[in-house]
Write a structure and sequence with these properties.
189 residues; alpha+beta; four-stranded antiparallel beta sheet; three-stranded antiparallel beta sheet; 5 helices; 39% helix; 22% strand; elongated; YdbS-like_PH; transmembrane; membrane; PH domain-containing protein
Length: 189
């Protein structure tokens, strides 16, 4: 590539397909239920309770306390939720987190050897779950509370198989492992 973004002229070689974004994921929006409920209650208190206070210093103190509750109980959780995101491309999985301090974690499909899903009873009611991407490192990369976790797992399996070039997912469907009339006896001669 040249500085202008155009391919240099006269180059020959294998063309590598461009990396495309397959999906962008966030945690399930269920995480915003309690902060949203707190905002509704705080708005009700501000609309009905605070005008009933008679003294000025009490009103100023109540408005200040209400502002602190809204900032720490609604604004920070929403910003935290917006700061957590995962991008699945045709070559890798990119996990970004943080608002002021950013953390970026990338996993190439060639490094992935297992993708599993862990769900709690609440997550299974909403068809979400934690997707664990095992790379052989100490700890797996965890995509927490992803909506449609089973679909994400199947997609990651397909992308990993394509990256490894094995085509295992298609081969086991086409070729049975043993014919019905053939059996394997272990330890027999």
């Amino acid at each position: 590539m040249s500085i202008a973004g155009e391919p240099p002229t006269g180059t020959t070689g294998p063309t590598v397909p461009a990396e495309r974004i397959v999906a962008r994921l966030r945690r399930h929006a269920r995480a915003l239920f309690w902060p949203s409920l707190l905002l509704i209650v705080a708005s009700g208190v501000a609309g009905y309770g605070l005008p009933r206070l008679t003294e000025t210093w009490v009103q100023i103190t109540a408005w200040g306390a209400l502002a602190v509750v809204i900032v720490f109980g609604w604004l920070f959780p929403v910003l935290w939720w917006l700061g957590q995101r995962t991008t699945v491309t045709t070559r890798r999985v990119i996990v970004r987190s943080g608002f002021f301090v950013r953390v970026r974690q990338e996993v190439l499909y060639s490094r992935i050897y297992d993708v599993s899903v862990r769900t709690s009873w609440v997550q299974s009611a909403f068809r979400s779950g934690d997707v664990l991407i095992n790379t052989g490192a100490d700890r797996p990369v965890i995509l927490r509370d992803v909506p449609g976790a089973a679909l994400v797992q199947r997609s990651l399996h397909d992308l990993t198989d394509a990256a490894h070039g094995s085509g295992i997912s298609m081969r086991w469907q086409e070729e049975p492992s043993a014919l019905p009339d053939q059996s394997v006896v272990w330890g027999g001669r």
